[in-house]
Automatic annotation (TrEMBL):
Protein name: Metal-sensitive transcriptional regulator
Start and end residues of each stretch annotated as Disordered: 1-29
Coiled coil: none
PANTHER family (UniProt xref): COPPER-SENSING TRANSCRIPTIONAL REPRESSOR RICR, TRANSCRIPTIONAL REPRESSOR FRMR-RELATED
One of the Pfam families matching this protein, by short name: Trns_repr_metal
Alphabetical keyword list: Copper
Domain of life: Bacteria
Alphabetical list of InterPro entries matching this protein: Metal_Tscrpt_repr, Metal_Tscrpt_repr_sf
Family of the protein in this entry: Belongs to the CsoR family.
Length: 118
């Protein structure tokens, strides 16, 4: 996986605790890159704290907007990585089974893409 990673929140901005149809022992597609995702998300948290500090310190608005843009791009990168992992792992596995689970995974992926492009 490249250094481009991302996580897309569900409607309302909060991620579900476990929205998948996998059992408790199942592994999600991103699990092999979990540490890279966590490291990237920690850097994004730092960027968000930096933006808050910039506002507190009354920095120039264009500089703040530049940092917001960089943070947004980093989050989008994580989202795209997770989406790709989901398609390669969860959707492909479900498609191989060829039952209703396949249709559900395709609907989930389509809904996630629709949320992402809004």
């Amino acid at each position: 996986m490249s250094d481009t990673l991302e996580t897309t929140p569900h409607e309302g901005g909060a991620a579900d605790a476990d929205h998948s149809t996998h059992g408790p022992a199942a592994h999600h597609g991103y699990i092999g890159d979990k540490q890279r995702y966590l490291n990237r998300l920690k850097r994004i948290e730092g960027q968000a704290r930096g933006i808050r500090s910039m506002v507190e310190d009354e920095k120039y608005c264009i500089d703040i907007l530049t940092q917001i843009s960089a943070t947004t791009a980093a989050l989008e990168s994580v989202a795209l990585g997770l989406l790709e992992d989901h398609l390669r792992h969860c959707v492909v596995d479900a498609a191989r089974q060829g039952d209703e689970q396949a249709e559900e995974k395709i609907r989930e992926a389509s809904a996630a893409i629709a949320r992402f492009v809004r």
